[in-house]
Structure formats: C-alpha cells, structure tokens
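Here's my example:
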Amino acid sequence: MIRYVPLRTLLGVLLSLTLAGCGNDSSASPAENPTPAARARHAVVQHPPTVAPGPGGLTPVFRRGGQAAGKTVALTFDADMTADQGMRAAQGERFDNPALIALLRRLEVPSTIFMTGRWAEEYPAQAHEIGNDPLFEIANHSYSHYSFAGDCYGLPRLDKKQIGPDVRRAFTAFRSVGARHVVPYFRFPGGCYDAAALRALAPTRVTAVQWDVVGGDAFATDADAVARQVLDAVKPGSLVVLHCTRSAAPVTEDAVRRIVPELRERGYRLVKVSDLMKH
C-alpha cells in the first residue's frame, strides 16, 4: 500500500537536504544546527557600535574590550581569499571551512567573520547563510586581500587610491549575496597598516579591528599548539584572530573544539566584536 507524504512535510525535507553552505556541511548532524529558540538567544545588534575617528579624522583602530567588558572574549575568523586565487579554487583548493562553521553553530559560539569580497563571490551560498544567521556577523576584510601597507607576508600591494574602492567593493559583494548581518568593521589583510592606510580608509567610515591574541593557526599543523597559544594569552576583553580557510588553516576546527570548552570552564562568555565594542 502506498502512503502519501503531506506536501508541507516533503517540502521541508527537500529544503533541509538542499541547504549547503559554510555552516551547513553535508556531513553535519542535526545537532550541529541549533533550534530557532537557541539562536534567538544571540541577539543581532541593530546599530553596531563604532569607535570615534582618531586624530585628524584617521580611521580608528579597536584591539580589545575595555575593563567594563569583564570576562568576555571575541573569537574572530578571517575568511581569506585574494583576488588572484580563482584559478587555484577552480583546481580544487578550498578557501572555505564548512566544518568549522558547523562546529561554531553546534557549540553556539557567537562569532565575527572577517570576509573578503572575493571569498563571498566564490562561496555565495555560504556567505548568504553566515550573513543571515544571528549567531554570526560579517565584517569587511577587503575585496582583494592585497596589502594595504608595505611588504606584508608577500601579498600583492594595493595603491592607496584603491583602498576606498576596494573596501566598498567588498561591501557590495556582501549585499549581492543577500547577507543581512554586516557590521561596519574592517580588518587589514595580514594586519598590516600605516598612517597613510588609515587616512585612505577614513572615507569608508569603518572601524578597523585588530586583535590582542594571535591564534597562530595559519599554516599550523598542531591543533593543540594553537589551542595552547590562545588559552595562554587570553584575558578579559580579549579579541582573538583565527581563520576560516581550510587550505591555509587546516587545524582551526580541532583547535576551537579545545578552546571553547576551556574558556567557558574558566568563566568566560563568548561574544561577537559588536558586543565587545560596547565596553
């Protein structure tokens, strides 16, 4: 005897099977996706705080929360992809990390993803899902991931006149994929900047966000070493930089699996940059 499945049920099943993104890895279990009630606990900041411009109107730089932040820590993840890496992506190199985002969801870790516009273009479905999940917020990591100041880890150099257009192009890429939770924060590629870069960036009206704890996961092969580096350096109000790039940071997921429970055991509350910046 044939049993007919209600159309609403069938559509729900099909939708769950087709959603695939940076946080909806095909191998993820249902437990990795929190319920709507669980996600509702992570409120989206409607008017993200910023830092007042520096002397002469220079772009302000935020590195960590103040004393009022208490025992809070912001884990941030750079989704790096330079403008000239399209051929490598076409040949199979993965600049995304779906398993990491799935883990952050399962552990309910509010996080700020510093994304390049080129990454959003390469992985539009993933960028869309991250940018519409209240657990996350997307910040600007430039469009091209070229250096904004001098010799910076071998990155191609961006002319100062190109800085404003490059940053705006990244915001345009986020809008194009339908990301809604986008904050006016910017992270320099490689963390490299100078006064000229801050001056050129000023018209975009972003707050530059650096860090006080280096995760050390870029090109690392020892997850325990990455976890120890973070846990040894973190303190109240810390801002940690890690990566969401499988090919360049393959052990980040395993490191986060060790870092998060230990921080919570120590009494830390994990927050997004927009929450940390309030203090």
Remarks:
- Residues 160 and 200 are 6 Å apart (CA to CA).
- The first strand starts at residue 61 and ends at 62.
- Strands lie at 61-62, 72-79, 111-115, 136-140, 182-186, 207-209, 213-214, 238-243, 269-271.
